[in-house]
What does this fold into?
Amino acid sequence: MRHKRWMGYSWMVFSSILLFIQASASDVRALDSAAVLPQGMTALFGENRFFFPVTDVFNQNGDKQPLGTPFNNVPLGGLFGAPPGVNFGTSMVSMQQTRVELEYTLAYGLTDRLTIGAIIPYVPYASTNFSFSNNTAGANFGFVGNSLTPCPLGAPGCQTASLTNINGALATAGFQPLQNHVQESGFGNVIIGGRYQYYTGNQYRGAFTGGVILPTGQERDPDNLLSQSIGSDTWGLRVQLQNDLMLQSPGLGKQLGYPDAGDFFLNYTLTYDMVLPDKQMLRVCPVTNPICPTKANLNRDLGDTFRLDVGPAIGLATGVILSGYYRYVYKMKDNYSGGPPGTAVDALEQYSDQQAHEWRVDLAFTSIPWVSRGKFGLPFVLDISYRERFAGDNFVNASRFIGFNFAVYTSPN
It folds into this structure.
């Protein structure tokens, strides 16, 4: 059917956008470092990210486009399988996503070289606003009320095609209705692991971090076209190499990775996240009809992610630190298999390899200089940050956020 082919193409692009525009967030502080906790010290790091409304993505060519671009100015006759000459109007769609992310890390210094801990991400608010209107210029057909019974405009009881009629067509394929506002919440992928500082000197230190990614992330609902992905229901492994070039005075600030007034360090961190294969219930459809109601457990291997962070941290004054980074992210292509004979899994794999470029700046205040001098008992850090993703491809979202962050340490021995 023509309307199913149209719906299939639109759903494929729509799902690609919604599945891949999610922010992949795992920062604990603005700038990572090769620092570890002293033996017996406990620390709690908190990062609270408030995203600006997201209205654009970077498409397959790296150009910005509105989220609703694939669905604007689309003839609705194709959606309803109308023959030539029957005009239901054209679509006018806009979309906006907002999000709040919380990430808390609890760490403990097992030795002076080895710190263990857990990263716990939670999204209390992820919303999608969706609006639809019908450009009826040239339309000559509509529907009888909320039904899918077509009628010529001007006939008694005949109304122009509405979102209710579109939802009726989607329901025949098992999808939930499109709504003006969808709100979700849930946990991301918890990571547990440790960091070992294999070398520390006057001007350089290096550390290795390894962790296990737990399958605690909330997947997007495959029956809800407006659902956001909060995490993934998959196991994984994280490996990081942290390197610091330091011009810092000895003391607690240097040990914990916070420069004092006039001090400076440069960090570069390499991160590799390997996602282990799993099975996931997904819609199983050929590329010509990916909106079909058939579902099956597919073998899924989400693409691994590589990340490079490079940035400085500078002590502007006693207890005041300016830091930032440039980040490059590359995600490999997803792979799917195991569907019914004839399944075209390339519909799911298309646009799943991605790149993103980001920058971030932080301004922090810390009590650590006064703790080092014995004038204050509790080491803490308060921080405000701004992050912007300025380039990307394959439907990575053009996101920005403001962060309000903190770190609290138990008093050193």
